[in-house]
Amino acid sequence: MRKVFQDELAQVGEELVEISKLVASAIENASTAFESADVDLAQDVIAADARIDFLQNALDERAIDILALQGPVASDLRMIVSSLRMSASLERMGDLARHIAQLTRLRYPSQVIPAPLADTFRKFAELDVQIARKVAELLESRDLNVAREIVKLNLEVDELHAGVFKTVASGEWAESASTSVDVALASRYFERFADHGVSVARKVSYLVNGEWQPEDIGGA
Amino acid sequence: MRKVFQDELAQVGEELVEISKLVASAIENASTAFESADVDLAQDVIAADARIDFLQNALDERAIDILALQGPVASDLRMIVSSLRMSASLERMGDLARHIAQLTRLRYPSQVIPAPLADTFRKFAELDVQIARKVAELLESRDLNVAREIVKLNLEVDELHAGVFKTVASGEWAESASTSVDVALASRYFERFADHGVSVARKVSYLVNGEWQPEDIGGA
C-alpha cells in the first residue's frame, strides 16, 4: 500500500512537470506567432491549450483520489494541496498564452504591436519564456535558487508593463485607440503570465521549507 | 470528535459566506467610487482588500487542518477541496474590485470612463454587483437556480465587454490612447470579476450534485 501511495505522489509531481513543459512550449510558440504575425502557429497554440486543460483536470482528479483514499498527512498532504494550487496557476498560464495567440489571430495579417513598442514586447516574450522554462526546472529540481530567479525576472516584467503605459500616455504616441487597446491587453497578458510563474515559485518554496507560509524568496 | 468535525466543516462554509459578502461590498463600493470619481471611497476599497486576503488565508489554513486531522472522505472531502478553490476565486474577485478602485485613484479627479461609454460601465457595475450578491446568496442557500442566474448575468457581461471593444474601434471614438487603454483595462476587470463568479457557481453545483464534473448550469 505505501509503495502504491508513493508511486501516486510521484506521478502527481511528474504530471506537474509535464504540464509546465507544455506551458513553456505554449508561451514560446505564442510569442513567436505574436512577433511574426504567424496565424498558423497561433492556431496551433489555441488548439494545444485544450491538452493543458485536460491534463490539469486529470491531475486534480488524481490528487483528490489520493486525498480520499490515502488520507495523507504532513509533507504528503502539503504536496497534494500545493499541487492542486500549482495546477490551477499552470492552467491559467496556458490560458494567457492562448489569449496572446488569439490576439495574433484577430489582427492577422497585421502585427498586433506597432513599431515603437516592438522591442519592448520582444523583451516581454523573452522574459515570459525564461520564467516558464524556469518553472519547469523548479518543479523538477526544487532548487530555491531557481525560485528566486523567477521572482527577479518578474520584477523586469513589471517594469516593462509600467513602461508600456508610460509610452502610450506620452506625447509621442501616435497610434490609434484600437491599437492602444491591443497593446494594453497584450501587456497585461504577459504580465499576468509572469505573476502566475511567481505564484508557482512561492508554492514550491512552501513545500521545500515545510511551511504554508512562504520563505522569503523576494518580491511582493 | 464527529461533532467537532461537523462544526469545523460548518465553520468553513460560514467563512466562505463571510468572504463573499465582503467581496460584494468591495465591488459595490468600487463601482460607486469609479462612477463618481470618489477617491476616498476608492481608498477604502483598496484598504479593505487586505481583510479579504487575510480571511482567505485563515479559511485555507482551517481547511488544510481539517484535511490533516480528520481525513475527510466523500462529500466532506469534496466540500473542503471545493472550499479551497472557491476561496481562491473570491480572493481574486476582491483583487479585481481593488484594481477598479486603483484605476479610480489613478485618474482622480477625472472620470476614468468618458461620456460615450458611461452607460455601458454603469451597466457593467450593476451586473457585477448582482453577480457578487448572488454568489453570497448561492453559498448560503446552495440553490442551483441562483447558480444559473449567475451564468446568465455573465453572458450579459460578456456582451458588454465585446461592445466596449467595438466602440473603441469605431470611427466615432475620439478619445485619447491613454483613455482607451483605461477603458480596455476596466472592461477586462469587470469581465474577469464576473468570470470568477461563474467559477464559484460551478463549484457549488459540483457540491450539490456530488460530482467533480459540473452539472450543466449553462455557459461555456
Write a structural description.
The structure is a homodimer of 220-residue chains. The first copy, chain A, is an all-alpha fold and 220 residues long. Chain A has a single domain (2-209), classed as Phosphate transport system protein phou homolog 2, domain 2 (Methane Monooxygenase Hydroxylase, Chain G, domain 1, Up-down Bundle), CATH 1.20.58. Chain A is elongated and about 65 Å long. The first copy, chain A, starts with a helix and ends in an 11-residue tail after the last helix. The first copy, chain A, has 6 helices and no strands. In chain A, 84% of the residues lie in helices and 0% in strands. In chain A, helix 2 packs antiparallel against helix 3 and helix 4 packs antiparallel against helix 5 (144-169). In chain A, 45% of the residues are buried. Chains A and B meet through helix 2, helix 3, helix 5 and helix 6 of A and helix 2, helix 3, helix 5 and helix 6 of B.
Short account of what is shown:
The structure is a homodimer of 220-residue chains. Chain A is mainly alpha-helical and 220 residues long.
User: What is the arithmetic mean of pLDDT of chain A?
Assistant: 94
Please trace the helix and strand order of chain A, writing H or E for each element.
HHHHHH
What is the 3D form of chain A? elongated
Number of strands of chain A: 0
CATH class of chain A: Mainly Alpha
Oligomer: homodimer
Reported CATH architecture of chain A: Up-down Bundle
Using the CA coordinates, give the radius of gyration of chain A. Answer: 19 Å
Distance between the termini of chain A: 42 Å
- Domain count of chain A: 1
The parts of chain A where pLDDT drops under 50 for at least 5 residues are none
CATH superfamily of chain A: Phosphate transport system protein phou homolog 2, domain 2
Helix percent band of chain A: over 70%
Q: Which strand-content bin applies to the residues of chain A?
A: under 5%
Largest interface, counted by CB within 8 Å of the partner chain's CB: A-B, 28 and 28 residues
The tally of helices of chain A reads 6
CATH topology of chain A, anyone?
Methane Monooxygenase Hydroxylase, Chain G, domain 1
